[in-house]
Records
---
Amino acid sequence: MQLLNIGFGNLLNIRRVLAALSPDSQPVRRITQEAKANGMLIDATHGRKTRCVLMLDSGHVVLSYLQTETLAERLAPEKKEDAHQE
């Protein structure tokens, strides 16, 4: 199992991440609000500004204070290794 550090020692299983989105668009804000209303929101920002919204295959939505680009860079090498292994 490969883990993704999303800040403050919080880790996610890389295989569960479907998308890393910028929180600035209205559709992403709507998704975040719906996840909060349904109890599917995980806030890993520790009170800081949300800079990335991660969507998981379980339907959970995870908020991170790290930039979307930073998390994409952390995901990219892992995805390349997965492609070589399969």
Note: The first strand starts at residue 3 and ends at 7.
---
Amino acid sequence: MRSLLAVCLLIAAVAVAMPALFKNYMAQPRAGNAIASAEAVADEPAEGEPTGPRQVEIKAERDGHFYVDAEINMRPVRLMVDTGATVVALRMSDAQAAGLRPRQADFINPVQTANGTTMAAETMLDSVVVEDVEVHDIRALIIPDDQLSISLLGGSFLNGLERFEVADGTLIFEN
């Protein structure tokens, strides 16, 4: 009877301890456990990679405007930051350089530009990257080149940031 009681106590102790032991065992990366190894590596920041928010500082040009060399859909485009623009506005030539090819029939959105009222084609940008800051799924308008002198980085990008601010001639993007 004592043997049976001892075996029951041993089984109960193992049953209580087993979940914690199993969890620790599965959490340890091993050569044979590629999933655990990949998860452990993915959770750790790469050497030299920033661990906090990503931030970009842009100095105002002589004319007082802020210009950025961005990547739109992984292609380079120069834009002027325009906090008053509701959306990103791309010149047709910049849109084409970014791989966007609207049809003439797509130009159905009336917009006000500095050059007057014109028609624009609406599109969605997969991504816009300014140095270390990236925003995805951004609404944009494509405007004929003769109606827009430079593409504009507007509210649809800026609203995708954690914050942006202008202070002492410097524009800060943070994501």
Note: Residues 2-43 have pLDDT under 50 and may be disordered.
---
Amino acid sequence: MLTGDLILKLKNMETKNKVLLIGGSGYIGGLTTDYLIRDGFDVTVYDNILYEERYLKPVNFIYGDIRDTDKIVQVSKEFNIVVLMAALVGDPACSVDPKLTEEINFTAIKDICLSLPKDKHVIFMSTCSVYGAQDGILNEESVTNPLSSYASTKLESEKYVLERNGTIFRLGTVFGLGDTYSRVRMDLVVNVLTMKAIKYGEITINGGEQWRPIISVIDIAEYVVEACKEKYQGIYILSKENVIIRELGEKIAKIIPNVSVKYTEISFQDARNYRVDNTKSLTIFKYQPKVTVEDEVSRMVNVFKENRVKNPEDIVYHNGLYIKKLNK
């Protein structure tokens, strides 16, 4: 006869290392899925595949919207870790429909955090954009200054993740290739400058003196894997380095031969300018960010030279343009 303790132990064994990855078919989610599986996790992807026509990765999959709280609560019963990656990402995408942005990036996260049982460990993707435009080196305790609905909704959502002792990653500007199934994003500074350099032999730097923290998709995926293993609590800035946009463009131009650099005045829509201190994540996490701009630019050069992305300027690779089209 099974005792109560033994039943509980068996139940815990059934849910050990089971991850529900909401938004797992996306740019960051795709590679994170692969790395979690690599490290022995039982992963199920929950996604509405907004930017894709199909999802053929050989992994457990549930089609669904992040706003369907009841469905997520029901689905999550067999998982002990819930990773919240689904979102409208970036200022241009979020500015198209502020009400929709509020629903997806804030209300859905709040409702999930309030509805999930407390024993579920929640990992949430936030952004360093919550800092807006500030001088000095900023850390997790620094004053925030969101300048867009993207940043403000992410910041509002953080409170609910913190209330349940979850893990929050404030991501720097992401760069690099993801997995082999998900689309590459071409609205991110390193990626688009690399593509323009290959396709046109010229890159344009808007403004150029702004600071940004940057980090690769690979490094983010590795951090999420460790957070699933160790269940760290609190806010962590994820960044490989702080870069000046002008110097970043010049670095890419040096990697790719015969590329010229043009400079224009910064667009008024993006006034972000900040540097971050990633000491906390470097101290707490065993994993250390290691992927450089040079590493990923070299990988992307082959992709673009060989035309493996048929039309990298198609709006599907640009969050803002794609959401604007859907919203017409």
Note: Confidence is low (pLDDT under 50) at residues 6-15.
---
Amino acid sequence: MRAPLPRLHAITDERIARRADLPEVARQLAAAGGANLALHARGRMLTGLKHYDLSFQLSNFPSPLFVNDRLDIAISLKAQGVQLGTGSLPVSAARQLDTTWWIGKSVHDLAEADAAKAEGADYLLVGPVYHTATHPDRPPLGLEALGRIARLGIPVIAIGGIDAERAKDVKAAGAYGAAAIRALWESADPEGAARWMLEELQ
């Protein structure tokens, strides 16, 4: 039986992937979230070896490992979930590789969300909800649009400018959970930040 979908998702980027303190921050996040926090190995510009190394490091903690795009790495490390982007393999192809995965799809509007649901995604990573330094040129969706997507009836993980205070707002708008990069990995107190965000998402 598959474990429940985590409500909080700590997502890496290329810069975080190269940080010397990555294992220590991951340890603190996992201590706070346990099975209710997913550690996402993401790095679009990483080589295959670097992405594997990142994923391997994150697989050594009690929190579930989710791998973005690299399904070969997800298979080799027995990841609990995968996150598919616009240019990734279809959900149906990922499902054939491992029927136990949580398979998420990144979407940016209602039309993409509707298509991802029809494709069979288990959950949607929706954003950016707020303005974010990760995608400074992309206009934020806002809470109203997030709510419309949440009403499709598939679990929604909100991303983009999410911190503990905004986690409460996206939950109220209908999101199942939230994802963050800087608010978790760059916090002076990663364990405290993760605990606070999870409290707001319950």
Note: The longest helix spans residues 22-33.
